[in-house]
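#struct-pred
JK: can someone run the complex with nicotinamide-adenine-dinucleotide? inputs below
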Amino acid sequence: MERDLVQGDPEVGMEVASHEGPWGLTGRRVILTGALGGIGQTIAAAFRGAGANVLLTDLPDASTAGESLAVSGFARSAYVACDITSAGDVRTLFDRAAEFFGGPADIVCAHAGVVGSHPLTEYPVDAFDDLMTVNLRGSFLVASEAARRWLAAEAPGVLIFTTSWVQDVPWPEIGPYSASKAAVRSLMRTFARELAPRGVRSNAVAPGIVGVGMARRQWDSDPAYRSRAQRAIPLGRLQTPESVANAVLFLASPLSAYMTGATLLVDGGASLYPMDE
Ligand SMILES: NC(=O)c1ccc[n+]([C@@H]2O[C@H](COP(=O)([O-])OP(=O)(O)OC[C@H]3O[C@@H](n4cnc5c(N)ncnc54)[C@H](O)[C@@H]3O)[C@@H](O)[C@H]2O)c1
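RT: done, structure tokens with the ligand placed:
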């Protein structure tokens, strides 16, 4: 069927007037992977602050996660443990989410990821495989399960992937990580292309060097990384997790209704040119 590109298709990325609040996310149902991580906690709080209903998921079981959930003010019922590399776990996550929300999610953030640091010539093959399994297979399993359910329910949703500024920039010792994020970006664009006619939007946020989570751990433990990173950010300060959360909220919201297949680079200019030499 020919689509009217002037009038548009009301099913595809149109404004949703019934959702109130500055982001238009009030009452929206969000699944967030990697929700207990450094950046994930801030994204979860930002969605909640915008009036969304968030289901947090991460690796630890509910009792281990209980303390961080309590600190951040989320109920245990808003948490489901899930290893995103397991297709069975991911299916269970979406079943539990449907029960929690009383229907399918509106927004799914494939945010969880891992990094490993070795020179390329010394990179252990098992570590390479493990990293690809989490970052690429895990993101694929989460996004494809979300998409299958949206298509079955004829209720389109929004996919948001987390890549990284190093998807395009070689950074010493994390070659496989960069490659995994470039692959996630490619996957995001294919989801966007294949599912746009069904009303699903798919975008990515690409953070820079954030002052929490994996970059912070390396900043604190590896002087060579720290001195390189200190020279690498044109804006001259470590990135806040709030800056990542703001981009995620924007990509989730009707404000970005005409965006699909895009990567929102939020990196303080780190990728503009190599400043780490
Ligand atoms: N911190 C940074 O500077 C930075 C920069 C660019 C991109 N990122 C990306 O942001 C995301 C979050 O990173 P972070 O810095 O908060 O790191 P983090 O290590 O604090 O958080 C990552 C979370 O992913 C979870 N996770 C790992 N393997 C999993 C699995 N198999 N199943 C389910 N969950 C799993 C971890 O338990 C953890 O809570 C990652 O995708 C990362 O690649 C981070």
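RT: quick notes.
The longest strand covers residues 201-207.
The mean pLDDT is 92.
JK: thanks, will look after standup
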